[in-house]
Amino acid sequence: MAQKKINSLGGLVYSTDPNFKPVENNFEQQETILPAQQKIKIRLDKKHRAGKAVTLIEGFTGKEADMEDLGKKLKTFCGTGGSVKDGEIIVQGDNRDKVLQWLQKNGYSNAKKIG
């Protein structure tokens, strides 16, 4: 629990300044833009995954919750597992064609398959 408090202050442990006030981080999430304006890239990746292929969906612009929702829908459509992290949607297996088909069907007209 103490570790969380330290990290929330940017690693600051002690200050001798009597007027010190910790800076609060107010991160505003970027608004989700319309599906037709999204520039989504779909590619296959095998690096650092023990030789197993995954489909990476990159370039989504919007809130984290909306990206989680899109990831869930894509994983359900493909019938596989995966995750959403570091601004990428990861779908297990080589499902580039299925993902592209679903995205185009649901209004993401700028989605492109790379590689």
Describe this structure in words.
The protein is an alpha+beta fold and 115 residues long. It has one domain: Translation Initiation Factor Eif1 (2-Layer Sandwich). The chain has three helices and five strands. The chain has helices spanning 2-8, 64-78, 96-105, and strands at 41-45, 54-58, 82-85, 88-92, 112-114. A five-stranded mixed sheet has the order 3-4-2-1-5, with helices on one face.
Contiguous low-pLDDT stretches (5 residues minimum) are none
Named CATH architecture: 2-Layer Sandwich
The level of helicity is 25-40%
Any idea what the CATH superfamily is called?
SUI1-like domain
Let me know the number of strands.
5
Q: Tell me, what's the shape?
A: elongated
Report a brief summary of the structure.
The protein contains 3 helices and 5 strands. By secondary structure, it is α+β, with helices and mostly antiparallel strands. Strand 1 and strand 2 (54-58) form a beta hairpin.
Main attributes of the structure:
115 residues; alpha+beta; Translation Initiation Factor Eif1; five-stranded mixed sheet; 3 helices; 5 strands; 28% helix; elongated
How do the strands and helices of this protein lay out in sequence?
Elements lengths: L1 H7 L32 E5 L8 E5 L5 H15 L3 E4 L2 E5 L3 H10 L6 E3 L1
